[in-house]
Amino acid sequence: MPERDVGSQNKIMQITMAGELKMNRRKLLGSLAAVTATSMVAKLGGGAAAAAQQVEDTSAVVSRTGPRNLITDVAGLKVGQAHDAKVQTGVTVIVPDEAAVAACDVRGGGPATRETDALSPQNLVQEVDGIVLSGGSVYGMASADGIAAWMGARNRGFSLRPAPGVPPSPILPAACLYDLANGGDKSWGELPPYRELGIRAVEAVAEDFELGTAGAGFGAMSGGLKGGIGSASVVSFTGINVGALAAVNSLGSVIAPGGKQFWAAPLELNQEFGGLGTDGLAAAPEDYGRALRSQPPPRTNTTIACVATDVTLSRVEAQRVAIMAQAGLARALRPVHAPYDGDVVFVISTSRREAPEGLPRSLLVTRIGALAADVLARAIARAIYEATALSGSQVPAWRDL
Q: Pick from 212, 292, 247: which is nearest to 137 by CA?
C-alpha cells in the first residue's frame, strides 16, 4: 500500500476515534463511511486524492432510506400480518423468497422463543424459511405451527433426504410478546386463535404492510403508551440495504419525560416520526416518564424484532450483527433489557448482494451492525408514532398526547 494512502487512512481514523464528545451518531456513521471508502480505494490501488473524492461524493447519501422505508426494501423479503380485533392480538411473519442465513440475540429477562437454538453456528440447519413474531405469549407459539403447516403443504422447508410422502420441515424461529392482559377477549378455552392467525399472516405476505396497531403489535403496549409494529430501512453509500421490523411491547418508554420527543430523534430521517427534533431531549437519572408508574409483573413486556440485509453473511457474521443491533433498543427505549422484557433480535441475510470489492469482512460487519442498530431504533419509534389506541382502552396512543 502506498505510504500516502496509509497516512490518509490513519488521519481519517484518528478524526473518527478522537472526535469531541459532542459528535453525534450521524457524524460517526459518516466517519465510518470515510474509513470504508479510503480502505476500499487503497485496496484497489487508488491514491489518497481518489479516496478523498469518493468520501466527498458519498457523504450526502449515507443516511438515505429505501423507497418504502420498510424492511422489505431489502431485496428478497416479504412481510405478512393478521390480527384479531376482538382478542386484541396478532401475528407478523417475515418470509424470504428462498431459505436465508439467520441468527438471533436474546437480551431480555423473560423471552418466549422457538427454534432459536437451531440458529447456533455449530448446528445442522444454516438457513431459515421465515421469522415469526406473535402476540399471545406462550400461546402465540402456535402461530409458527400454522405457518409451518402452510409451508410444508407447499413443499417448502428443510429435507435431509427428500423422498415421496415425506414432508419437509420448515425452519421458523419465533418470538412472542405478552399481550394477555390488554383487555381483549382471551376466553378461548382450548382453541387459541394463533394457528389460524399464522396461516392468515403467511397468506398475506407482500412488500407493503401496515404499521402501528397491526400484526404482532396489534395488542402491544409500550411504556404507558400504545405499542405496535414499526419498520424502517437505510441504504449505505456503497448500496448495502439494511432494514428492520419491530413489535414494540416494552416496559421502557420511547419518549422523554414530560413531552412527546422520541429518544431515537437524533437518528430520524425525513421526519418519519414527526420531526420534533432533539431540543430539550433529556431526563433526570430516575425519571422514566410514563414507564414504571406501576409495578408490572415480570415477563409481561418485550420488544421482538428482525433486522435484514441483502449482503451475503455467514452465520457467525449475522450473529455479530444481531448483537450490535441490540444497541438500537437502548437508543430508542429507556429502560431496556429489564427482567420484565423478553427482548429478542433476529437477523436475516438474503444474499442478494456480495460485499463491496476490497472491503475487509470485519469492517463490512461493523458497518452493517452500526446501520442495523440505528435503523432498528427508528423502527421502534415509528411503531409508537403510527399506533392508534385500542377501542375502550385507557392506554393512550402517542398521537393522543
A: 247
pLDDT tens, position by position, 100-152: 999 999 987 778 999 999 998 888 888 999 999 999 999 999 999 999 999 99
- How many CB atoms neighbour CB 207 within 10 A? 14
Long-range CB pairs of 30-36 (<8 Å, 24+ gap) are: 30/59, 30/62, 32/366, 32/367, 32/370, 33/58, 33/59, 33/62, 33/236, 33/237, 33/367, 34/59, 35/9, 35/363, 36/238, 36/356, 36/359, 36/363, 36/367
Helix (H, G, I), strand (E, B) or coil at 54: helix
Render the burial of 148-177: b for 16+ CB within 10 Å, e for the rest. bbbbeeeebbbeeeeeeeeebbbbbbbbbb
Q: Which residue is listed with cell 409495578?
A: 295
Residue listed under C-alpha cell 440495504:
241
Residue 106: which H helix or E strand, with range? strand 100-106
- Give 27-39 pLDDT, tens digit per residue: 544 545 555 444 4
Backbone angles phi, psi at 175, to 5 degrees: -140, 145
Distance (Å, whole) CA 37 – CA 34 = 5
Q: Which three cell numbers stand for residue 67?
A: 423507497
Residues 294 and 188 in one domain: yes
Q: How far apart are CA 218 and CA 339, in angstroms?
A: 23
Residues 126, 366: Cα–Cα separation, whole Å: 22
Check whether residue 179 and residue 236 sit in a common domain: yes
CB neighbours of 323 closer than 8 A, spacing ≥ 6?
Answer: 105, 369
pTM given for the model: 0.85
- C-alpha 284: how far from chain center: 28
The answer to whether residues 310 and 75 touch, using CB atoms and an 8 Å cutoff, is yes
Task: Verify that 132 and 201 share a domain, yes or no.
Answer: yes
- How many structural domains does the chain have? 2
**Domain ranges, residue 296:** 71-400
Nearest to 374 by CA among 197, 235, 206: 235
Beta bridge partners of 306: 245, 346
Q: Are 173 and 131 in contact (CB under 8 A)?
A: yes
Gyration radius (Cα) of the chain, Å: 21
